[in-house]
Write a structure and sequence with these properties.
Layout: E1 5-6, E2 28-35, H1 43-51, E3 59-64, H2 72-82, E4 86-90, H3 97-110, E5 113-118, H4 130-138, E6 143-147, E7 154-156, H5 159-176, E8 188-191, H6 192-201, H7 210-217, E9 223-227, E10 229-231, H8 239-255
Parallel strand pairs: 1-4, 2-3, 2-5, 3-4, 6-9, 7-10
Antiparallel strand pairs: 5-8, 6-8
Helix pairs in contact: 3-6
Amino acid sequence: MLSSTIEPSAATSTPGDSTRSLNAPPELRLGVVTPLGNEHRSIEAFMNAVLQHLTLEDRWYCVFDNISKDGTREVVEARSEDDKRVVSVLASQSRCVVDAYFAGYAAAYAAGCRWILEMDAGFSHPPERIPEFVAAMEAGYEFVGGSRFMSGGAHRSPWTRRCLSYGGSVMARWCLGSQMTDMTSGFECFSRPAMKYVLQKRVRSRANFFQTEIRHMMHRFRWKEIPIIYVNDKARVGRRAIGESLRILAQMSLEK
């Protein structure tokens, strides 16, 4: 196995440019972070779709924890042996998807990526929109968030998910004074300073609401939204996650 597989301990030191090793690689352009579970049926097509939008100065951090058991990790690691842009991140201590995301964030930050793009697997986030995120970052924005609720965007999911996503965005805007049209989405790109802030501040949520916490943080940076089409055929969102979201939102509204 090549050294493209890294453990989270190699990527979770206190963020800051001064923590980078003297042997660190030259500054990379874009680091894409994608937690992966059991994606064996779609991973080959998804990898091809993502990689066609990445340059040789880009990296794709595929994050795995103990949930992935269907051979997805083996497919990714085989590709990483032939393509240095693909990096497998083993988050063996991950207890939830939030931990997996942060392991990927930290790996991309530690590698020196100029911009860090978070996206989901399984084509729920369309890879063909990657160039639009890059173009906005090149224009000087520090955070670019995908929005399902602005003109040109869409949320193609069961009505339960659509209601929760839109209702959560409305509540976040009302309680927190947020200006973004979508406060519950992933598919977002960060500058190094913006990502450093996220890694230092961390989040309280252990479920879906961490995206709202991050977007609330990003209001202090120069930000922009771009329309995205999100596809997810899963209808269920756990009651525990909904309860946690309401509790943390109430805490944040009192703190603002």
